[in-house]
Amino acid sequence: MINKITQYLNSFSSLSVLVIGETIIDEFLAVSYEGQSMKSICPVYRVEGDRNAQQGGASAIANHLRDFVKKLDVITNENSEIVKTRYIDRDDKKKHVEINKFETGKFKPIKVRTSDYDVVIVADFGHGFCEQLSITDGFHLMSQTNSNNFGFNRMSKWKKYTKKSVCLDLREASLQMNKKIKFETPAEILELYNYEMNAQHLFLTIGRDGSAYTDGEEIFRQQTFESKIVDTIGAGDTFYAFACLMAAIDQVDKNDIMLLPALAASLSTTWLCNEKNVTPQTLFNYASKFIL
């Protein structure tokens, strides 16, 4: 299996990739709890360190893939337009509160011809950047649901396009189907595939239960790889990034199509958000812990 992983990594190295989507600045500020304000009912925290800013969103996806492919281009917004500031506990890194800043009224029209690249990845985080996109068929798509766009950034927005692949998590899939489903049976996964997906490949991340894949005919499942989790923010984006590459290369064993995405996602949970990037060496070393 390690030999097959090496083959897949070698296949990535010939790809020309374009990543399109919103860059999100993820800020982290370590705090400690001091108690409750005597004059108002709110918690009080003490700042315990400097502000840590990281590139998230489409830029994080691009940074993870940069060392794996032959060429990588990015079309994104200015870094300061979308900022998510998280106040996290100094000791256990749990989030106490998040404050978002959006200055998204100045996005310009974008025109992309997918035939110019081997892989075109559209990461739509629902902040309006991808609404300005004019693109030809044949791209890979994630249309993320978050607190800012809940219910309004469904995959159906893109149903008129024929996609190479789409990737959803359980919440996004349930919103797409207009009903809460655990997607435990083949029939449920195939129903999702046939519901306005218009894609060749469907990847579905199912949290601790791993992930599922279908091409509309067969269904395959992938277990999670257990790690000492520091932070899960960005793990779904990491899975999506490598799923796009696996869907793009020739002669992939469908039993393996979620293997590298699952490994990369698990690896990315071992650090805070996007403070590090997945590299060929770190991914190979991580895979070696689980696979002979």
Notable traits:
292 residues, alpha/beta, UDP-N-acetylmuramoyl-L-alanine:D-glutamate ligase, eight-stranded mixed β-sheet, 24% helix
Tell me the name of the CATH homologous superfamily: Ribokinase
Query: How much strand?
Result: 25-35%
- The tally of structural domains comes to 1
Q: Measured on Cα atoms, how large is the radius of gyration?
A: 19 Å
CATH class: Alpha Beta
Mean pLDDT: 93
Helix/strand class: alpha/beta
Brief sketch in words of this structure:
It contains 7 helices and 15 strands. The protein is of the alpha/beta class and 292 residues long.
Question: How would you characterize this protein structure?
Answer:
The chain has 292 residues and is an alpha/beta fold. The protein has one domain: UDP-N-acetylmuramoyl-L-alanine:D-glutamate ligase (3-Layer(aba) Sandwich), CATH 3.40.1190. 24% of the residues lie in helices and 31% in strands. The protein contains 7 helices and 15 strands. The strands form 3 sheets. It has an 8-stranded mixed β-sheet with strand order 5-1-9-11-12-13-14-15, sandwiched between helices. Strand 2 and strand 3 form a beta hairpin. Helix 1 runs antiparallel to helix 7, helix 2 packs across helix 5 and helix 5 packs antiparallel against helix 6. The radius of gyration is 19 Å and the shape is globular. The relative contact order is 0.15.
List the helices and strands and how they pair.
Elements: H1 2-12, E1 16-21, E2 23-36, E3 43-47, E4 52-57, H2 58-65, E5 71-75, E6 82-89, E7 95-102, E8 110-112, E9 119-124, E10 133-135, E11 140-143, E12 163-169, H3 170-177, H4 186-193, E13 199-205, E14 211-214, E15 219-222, H5 235-248, H6 259-268, H7 280-290
Helix pairs in contact: 1-7, 2-5, 5-6, 6-7
